[in-house]
Design a protein that fits this description.
alpha+beta; Hypothetical upf0131 protein ytfp; 251 residues; three-stranded antiparallel beta sheet; four-stranded antiparallel beta sheet
Length: 251
Amino acid sequence: MKQVFLYGTLRHLGLLEIVLGHVPHDRLSAVSLDGYCVARAEGHDFPLILEQSGSSCDGLLLSEVTPAEQARLDYYELGFGYRLLPVEIAGQEALVYFPEPDLWQAAEPWSLKEWSALHWPVTQHSAREIMGLMGQVAPHELGRYFGRIRVRAYSTFLAQSNPSPATLRAAHSIESVTLRGGRLSHIGYFRTDTLRLSHPRYDGTQSDEMEREVFLTGDAALVLPYDPVRDRVLIIEQFRMGPLGRGDPLP
C-alpha cells in the first residue's frame, strides 16, 4: 500500500481534514525525514522541501493511502507546481510532494506554529473552495484562479471575524437560510454560483424556494447617498445574495 510523507501545511490537522475529507488518525504517525529541510517560498507563505545534508524535517506519514485520498491530495498539490517523488523513510518507501525545480526560491526556515497563527484563518476558506472545485475544474487550471480564491477567502474571513452588528436591523442568521442545492455556474477572474434556497421574511414567514445567482468576489466599497438638506439617508433592509456568498453571519 502507498505511503505519503506530509510536511508543511498538511501537518495541520484542520487543513488535512479539508483536503482528505476526514482525518485518518489510525494511519498517521509522526516521523522525521533525514537529509531534507523545509523553507518558506520567497514572497509566499507556503513551504518548500529541499535537500540539505545534516538536516531533518518533521512530518506525518500517512500509510495505506486509498485511491480516493491520493486523488484528493494530488488535486490539492499537483496543480500548484509540485510533483510526487519517492523517498526512503526508516527503510520504507514513501511519496513526497516536491516543488518543481527553480520554480520558487527558498527563504528562511518555515514554521508550522507561525503559519497556523498568521495564515490558517484565511487558508481554511481557500482550501474549502479549492476542494469544492474537484471534479469541476481541472487541477492544472487551479493556479490561474488561486489569486482570486485567496481574495474571496480573505473576504469570508473578515465577514466571520468581524460581523456587522444587528442593533438596528433584524438578526436573521445565515443558519436561517435553507440551501436546497447549488452548482458552479462560472469561474474565471470572478466566480458565479447558482443556488436554490429559501430565507426568512420580515413578516415571520419563510419565502418560497427560489433560484438565484451569487457573484463571488472580494470586498467592495459602498457609496451611501446623503441628502444634506434634510440630513437623511435612506436604507433598505433585505436579504442579499452577496453577503450570503461571502459567508456573512447576518446576510
